[in-house]
Amino acid sequence: MGKGGEKGGESGEPETQLRCYTWEEIQKHNLRTDKWLVIERKVYNVTKWANRHPGGHRVISHCAGEDATDAFQAFHINPTLVQKFLKPLLIGELSPGEPSQDRDKNSQLVEDFRTLRKTAEDMNLFRANPLFFSLYLGHIIAMEVLAWLMVSYFGTGWITTLILACILTTSQAQAGWLQHDFGHLSVFKKSSWNHIVHKFVIGHLKGASAKWWNHRHFQHHAKPNIFKKDPDVNMLHIFVLGDTQPVEVRQSGLTVKVLREQREAGSSSLTPRKLTPVGRWVLKLMYIQHAMGKMKTILRISKLELVFFFQGVGSSLLTKRQKFLESHWFVWVTQMNHIPMEIDCEKHRDWLSSQVAATCNIEQSFFNDWFTGHLNFQIEHHLFPTMPRHNFWKVKPLVKSLCAKYGVQYEEKPLGKAFVDIVG
């Protein structure tokens, strides 16, 4: 097992005779300046490619030294096309005596999950219904237009402001769920079409950055609830999460510092209504900064917010009310599936086990589906990120059956209990 394979990967010319590597050797290449990963028993050196990775360098780095087969299949809607980018990075393959899975993972569970995915593909569950997403976008635009007309005809009086706040809260929340669909490439067959519409929805309707969202959100999906890998739980100086972090913080002597920072910030600054609006405006500033030219910036900011800006004080109150309501809606829905679940350091589990341990479902109903943007099917969404959301209920029985077979806990709860569990 020589080092010649490493040279082949960096030069962009894979060798004819592939080198064979053991898992012990592959796992050593998980550093910032040295990253290997395995996809379908093939070994790739992604050290230099990571910075050019469309999904960001962090998400691919999180899989360094591991079998990334399931993550690769989960995030790419056309693996065959992506293979052409992988080919120059190929440096070898697993030795014949090496198992396909690293770190003593249950190989039969992994194979059964991949069989389940193939079954879902054969059932056309990865094919989107154009009518569903057209109607969904239509009801968002209808609410935005209605708000426009109300501002134009009725101004920004108190009664109008309250009604508008409810309408805009609903349209913005639903636009947030819709941009999530396009961001995950779950609507169109071509990635480029998904990216274009994603930029429109998140940029024009939400006023945020598609690139920033992609780079953070895919890290969350690759390693949910994993400290130092999932940005959604890297909040040490605001909250300590899970069962192990509070103990580690206390033992490391950081407790006093963290408590002092929390006290200085004030308990009110840690509420969802404070955190999320600040984050939204930071995102908008970042997005504007990256926009090319003044005209592009104006076009990509929500026109409705420009109207509110020029309307003055009344519209300022409207914006505050809308963001107050929307931030609560967004935070409670997105956190009820993750924060009450296991939050810990990397355990190198298989794809199914790691995703189910960090997520839970909310009971299905027409209201719950609409209110959460089908994120009440969080387990299915995390297992199959590119699957159109209207098909989650179809694959759910298959997922539950597989979890039951291997004793993997599949948690589902009522909406009310999920809200209460966040507080707990």
Q: Tell me about the largest β-sheet.
A: 5 strands, mixed
Poorly predicted regions: 1-11, 266-283, 285-314
Strand order of the largest sheet: 1-5-4-3-2
Instruction: Give the N-terminus to C-terminus distance in angstroms.
Output: 52 Å
Strand content: 5-15%
Order of SSEs: HEHEEEHHHEHHHHHHHHHHHHEHHHEH
Shape field: globular
Count of spatially separate domains: 3
Q: What does the radius of gyration come to?
A: 23 Å
The helix/strand class is mainly alpha
The count of strands amounts to 7
Helix share of residues? 55-70%
The assembly state of the depicted protein chains is: single chain
The average pLDDT is: 83
Organism: Balaeniceps rex
Keywords: Fatty acid biosynthesis, Fatty acid metabolism, Lipid biosynthesis, Lipid metabolism, Membrane, Oxidoreductase, Transmembrane, Transmembrane helix
Main location: membrane
Transmembrane segments: 131-151, 157-178
Describe this structure in words.
With 424 residues, the protein is mainly alpha-helical. It folds into three domains: 20-103, Cytochrome b5-like heme/steroid binding domain (Flavocytochrome B2, Chain A, domain 1, Roll); 130-336, no CATH class; 351-423, no CATH class. Helices cover 59% and strands 6% of the residues. α6 packs antiparallel against α20 and α15 (303-311) crosses α16.
